[in-house]
Amino acid sequence: MKKIYLLFLLFINVSIGQELAIQDYNYSVSDSVNGAVKNLSEEKIYIVDFGDNNQKMIEKSSFFMFEHPYQKEGSYVITLYDLSDGKKAVSAKQVTIAKEKKTLRISKITFLDYNPIKDTGAAWDLATGGTYPDVYMKFYNPTTGKSLGHTQDRTRQNVKAKSPISWSFESFSLNKETLKDGFEIQFLDYDSISGDDTIGGIAFKNALATFKDQSGTITIDDIEKYNCAFSIEYSWE
Predict the structure, then answer these.
(1) What is the Cβ-side half-sphere exposure of residue 24, based on CA atoms within 13 angstroms?
(2) Three-class SS of residue 175?
(3) Looking at the predicted structure, is the pLDDT value of residue 80 above 60?
(4) pLDDT higher for 101 or 127?
(5) Which of 49, 109, 126, 132 stands the most exposed, by the fewest C-beta atoms within 10 Å?
(6) Is the pLDDT of residue 130 over 60?
């Protein structure tokens, strides 16, 4: 008996819903909240309501990007409305705005580890018979090279880097205007005979993005790249 197989194909029209997306970031007052809306119908009219009495209309577009700053701290719901369906809410996201970041205060820096060999291939402090560098620290503007500060007395506050070293700061701060250029931290080996040697460090060129939380600790631990490892405790005021 000859068998006949019949193949039925079922085509399903899949409608992808409109999607409201917000960039994941710890926003504060005056920051622009970045977001996008996609999968829109070009035949419809939409409104993005930012929850602070501000709105943006979208017409004849399937994709829309926005930047919106908030002037007050608090929680806001950003809602996408479809006006062709009686102002129907089709997507919503909540965003939290923290108080404005005006001054970055560094309260503590801990020097965790370092490359035991200099860039020249020599060990540290051979001239004075030591094997551990006498560490002190400087802050720079990476654009101008201008010093922003250093440990108060390098001849007394520098210490042997045999184990983790911590410096605590009562009032070391960088205002928002200074941070536009970022800042650089360099750890140096004090040498009473010849010039001081740079152990390593890092330039935070986008400090506002790097120190994005209201407070916290950042750890730099790529010794091969930065020639040292350290942590920074900070807060925004």
Answers:
(1) 0
(2) strand
(3) yes
(4) 101
(5) 126
(6) no
